[in-house]
Design a protein that fits this description.
Beta-Lactamase, 14 helices, alpha+beta, 3 domains, 480 residues, Alpha-Beta Plaits
């Protein structure tokens, strides 16, 4: 059976999610093009709203417009004003015949049909997503408004992902700057014993340029007579982990590029990063050890803090402590590959906090954050150690259940639903709706991202039925 237009858009959104590494501008170009094609409109705009100003961030247009990216316009002079006042998706196919016919945004830009929705990131209005045309179109059906709302929610998640990625890159840059600024020589060594980074002080100490060190075995910096012994010590340290502070090691010698032996003291620290386990080697010329030791310890502490920030931001949701979307997809795709190989079941729960906007409006954003934390706690308490609990975005959560069939997934979903409803110390009562999907005869030729998109899509449709059925309930996918 051919997929409906709405299903094709949803499938395309999941595909665009996998384009994360290509950059946000590429993702937004794809999103706006998909929206214009589906809604039959020529203009697609994603904008930020700040201090009453509409700041155009991304634009797709099939015709010349007096607009450009970066342009700032008073919100009251744009039709985004309608979406922000509505607090949700809004649309009109013939503005000139509507009560908004005299709106400055219609008159200034000559817009005749408009679809727009606010984009809410971390409980705050970030901006709007809109599609418009200078031509009238048939009345806009409710299903198009619902689809636009889903697209705005998807966009909010992608904005959060890219904001997290920017923080991650800044933390990584801070880590490297800290190493580079250290007064002592510092090397980063991977688990194969290869040099992955050497600061300027290390290049000066050993008499090598950076390209000569990068990717080379660290044993090149050790006298030939003890290289085999050094490799054994390195493997032993890697197995034990931890660290070795300055002043507690043996008398060692390094090897200068000229062949000259250098008396050195070496401090070692294991550094766990999103890219694997590394050893940070701090190397002091013994003649300068006392002068630099205090400075080195200070730098090492700063680097450890920077690295913890780097790792946490890469995989953890700051608010709930659950896995974030990036970690979720990584684990889910791996589990689906294993499950297909072993002919095992994987179930997925997609949870959405009911009426969360009303909760936030009535109780405030701090109370809303606490409510999301409590939902995360209920999920962690109910999950097994092998399950993957994650914040999917906004008020949506996801739980991946390896080796669990639909009956087991339904039982756990009910336990979580009842657990959330039993929380009594929040500002207002809280409930969740849950959509359940289980792998069923996965396509042997499908890629892991395609398998993940199919499973999430089925869970999302189950969640939609749970919402339409009155909320505070569990609905399972019919294929499970």
């Amino acid at each position: 059976m051919e997929a409906s237009s709405h299903e094709r858009v949803m499938r395309r959104l999941y595909e665009i999610s996998t384009e994360f590494s290509l950059g946000f501008a590429r993702q937004m170009s794809s999103l706006l093009q998909v929206g214009c094609e589906h809604f039959g409109m020529e203009i697609g705009i994603q904008a930020c709203v700040s201090d009453g100003e509409f700041i155009l961030e991304h634009l797709h247009s099939g015709e010349p417009l007096p607009l450009e990216v970066g342009q700032s316009i008073p919100v009251s002079d744009t039709l985004a004003d309608l979406a922000l006042q509505q607090g949700g998706p809004v649309g009109c196919g013939a503005l000139s015949a509507s009560r908004n016919r005299n709106h400055p945004g219609r008159i200034r830009w000559g817009i005749e049909s408009y679809l727009g929705a606010p984009v809410v990131v971390d409980g705050e209005v970030y901006g709007t997503l809109s599609f418009s045309s200078r031509h009238a179109r048939p009345d806009i059906p409710d299903k198009d408004l619902d689809l636009l709302g889903l697209m705005a929610s998807w966009l909010a998640v992608e904005i959060q992902r890219h904001q997290s990625q920017e923080r991650l890159q800044k933390a990584e840059q801070s880590f490297r700057l800290g190493v580079e600024a250290s007064p002592a020589a510092m090397l980063m060594i991977d688990d194969r014993g290869l040099i992955t980074y050497a600061n300027s002080a290390a290049q000066e100490l050993f008499g090598y340029r950076y390209p000569d060190l990068f990717g080379s075995a660290v044993e090149m910096l050790v006298p030939v007579a003890v290289r085999a012994e050094h490799a054994g010590h390195r493997a032993g340290f890697a197995a034990e982990g931890g660290g070795r502070a300055m002043g507690r090691g043996r008398l060692l010698h390094g090897l200068h590029s000229s062949g000259r032996r250098i008396p050195v003291e070496v401090g070692l620290n294991t550094v766990e990063t999103p890219y694997g386990s590394f050893t940070l080697c701090t190397i002091l010329d013994r003649s300068r050890q006392e002068q630099f030791e205090r400075e080195v310890q200070d730098y090492t502490q700063r680097l450890e803090v920077a690295n913890r920030t780097l790792s946490d931001q890469a995989f953890t949701d700051d608010l709930t402590g659950l896995f974030n979307r990036r970690a979720l997809f990584s684990h889910l795709e791996m589990l689906l590959r294993l499950a297909r190989r072993d002919n095992a079941a994987v179930s997925l729960l997609l949870l959405d906090v009911d009426h969360f906007k009303e909760f936030n409006d009535a109780a405030g954003h701090q109370a809303g954050d606490e409510a999301l934390r409590r939902v995360g706690e209920v999920m962690k308490d109910a999950a097994r150690r092998s399950d993957i609990a994650a914040r999917y975005g906004g008020e949506e959560f996801m739980l991946v259940l390896p080796g669990t069939d639909q009956d087991g997934a339904r039982e756990l979903a009910e336990r979580i639903r009842l657990g959330v409803a039993a929380v009594t110390d929040l500002a207002r009562p809280l409930t969740v709706s849950v959509g359940v999907a289980t792998t069923a005869n996965p396509d042997p030729d499908a890629t892991a991202p395609e398998l993940a998109a199919d499973l999430i899509g089925r869970a999302d449709r189950s969640l939609y039925r749970a919402k339409n059925g009155g909320r505070n309930r569990v609905v399972c996918d019919r294929r499970g």
